[in-house]
Amino acid sequence: MTVPGSSSLRYRLLRGPVALEAMRVLACRRFAWAGGDACAYVLGASHAVVLRHAGREWVEMLTCVPPPRDGSACSPLLTAAVPDTGASDVVIDLPTEGEFPFRGMVRLQRFTLLPHGRDALHMPLDPANCLTHEFPARDACVPRTRLGWNVSGSRLAIETVHTYPEEGCGIRSETLIHLPGGGDPAVEGNNATT
Q: What is the pTM of this model?
């Protein structure tokens, strides 16, 4: 079986539920945020974060395969490829109209995998706000996914690192989302920074 590489990763923001069980859930943790809740998932195909607020649901995914088409009501709001080797980071403003009531941005970064420490998450985290999964080693190289989050009022910061040792690279995603009117003056409009 061929294992998908980093170039097959796609960032997706979807409206509506996604059958994540079909994508092999390896670890998950639920947490409260902005009057709703969220759940972080490490998947066999990478990661997902489900956001629930005011009776609606959105899913952020960075995966090698598209979400299952099992009759679920999910619809895409945004799709983006990870940057190629040597390319600049990809920075995307999240949709500001329609079905997505939050504001924010996503940064996707490819980096060279070094022997020590480069696959760590950058943001300071409480250990309870972090999931790590190591995949079966190939030729003594251990691919891993790290997913962490911080909640501060109406603000949610999500960071992930997915390593591809056989390619000598990793992919980092950083998402910053806030609910407008949530009383968080540190985040202004759609020009949020991490």
A: 0.86
